[in-house]
Design goal:
homodimer, 10 helices, DNA-binding
Chain lengths: 199, 199
DNA sequence: CAACAAACGGACCGGGCGGTCAACTTGCTA
DNA sequence: TAGCAAGTTGACCGCCCGGTCCGTTTGTTG
């Protein structure tokens, strides 16, 4: 491929400043945070933003990619944990906490994300599947749920809580616990619809 | 209060056309559907929109109000159902189906909704509480969940599924079932956080 | 230290948005 | 059916947004 020449020192620094500022700004003001505001927050000219990220969508994609990678790393470590059930719960906790600290939910489904993101998502999904398989074999979760179920439910605790205007900071743990109880084998009722396929 | 003179026939008709068109448009294009497009879809001039709803936010509020009322009516009927557990599940199903047919999730939290909405929300919340109390007394749900828990979890099945780009139409039922299993007494683990108060 | 490419900044552009207004049309009522 | 208030309309306004461009600054390299 193209051997990308290393960025100049100031350019590399500005890139990081921009990513951080953009994440904060999106978290505070939602998806229509303006590029100009992001630039100002990073202490940088607007043109600089577009030099690093040709499009606002490219900027969003960079942030999302970063988030997905974090989850992938966390999940991969948990694959070797002693208790597979606890590991799955821990993964869900990490995912929720990440989303809690900086809610960027809206940009996930920002249509037509790049192929790079699709790929990163794929590897993360595969790791989640492995986590679930281990937990299932261990009898920690019911037989009829799959990795995709976890992917789908992953951010539910936070999303659900964020409807409340003034929720206590750890309330999401309550709903994670309820949902996780629904994933356990004890007292499980048959599910009315087959799981979605790996995309 | 002000005895509101009845609308002229054409005005009343246009008001309904507008509400319908706006709901469709918001469902399709998200919160930034433009007033101009809504007007066009309703076959009406842009000025007419603003005559009926002084602000785009007022239009949104009117739609949300309608949604809440529908739920309130459904919930009130279910209060007299024979099986309280089934009634609660049915309420959740109705809520999810409503959201499925026309996803307006984003406008729920549209900040600072009018006092009218706050009030309508209040009555709906109280009915949900009653539904849950009945179900709990009947042993259909675990002792440690409250009406607010149901309010919080109400739309989770749809919200969660809507992350998937091409989800089968009834997939949400799967997640409603999982979550409902988490609400049952059988195999319940203690919850790590107290429930949120009635707002 | 000289010289050049890389990076920067911010004025600028076209477009679409929410919202206004004054001229026009239409349903109601006496 | 005449008259008038209620209702409609679309051109118009100001604003802000994503994105461009070019003159200027700055890090790097020999």
């Amino acid at each position: 491929m193209t051997p990308p020449r290393p960025l100049r020192a100031d350019a590399a620094r500005n890139r990081q400043l921009l990513l951080a500022a953009a994440a904060d700004e999106f978290a505070e003001r939602g998806p229509e945070a303006s590029v100009a505001d992001i630039a100002r927050r990073a202490g940088v000219g607007k043109g600089t933003v577009f030099r690093h990220f040709p499009t606002k969508d490219d900027l969003i994609a960079a942030i999302v990619l970063d988030r997905i990678s974090t989850l992938t790393v966390a999940g991969r470590e948990l694959l070797t944990a002693a208790d597979p059930g606890a590991a799955l719960l821990e993964f869900l906790t990490v995912a929720a906490r990440q989303r809690d600290q900086l809610d960027l939910s809206f940009l996930q489904q920002a249509g037509g994300l790049g192929a790079e993101i699709t790929q990163a998502q794929g590897t993360m999904f595969r790791i989640v599947h492995a986590l679930v398989d281990r937990a299932r074999e261990h009898g920690a979760v019911r037989a009829d749920i799959t990795g995709m179920d976890i992917v789908v439910l992953m951010c539910a605790p936070i999303d659900v809580v964020s409807q409340l205007p003034d929720a206590p900071p750890d309330l999401w743990q309550r709903y994670l616990a309820i949902i996780f109880d629904g994933l356990r084998p004890a007292g499980a009722h048959p599910l009315p619809h087959p799981p979605p396929p790996l995309p």
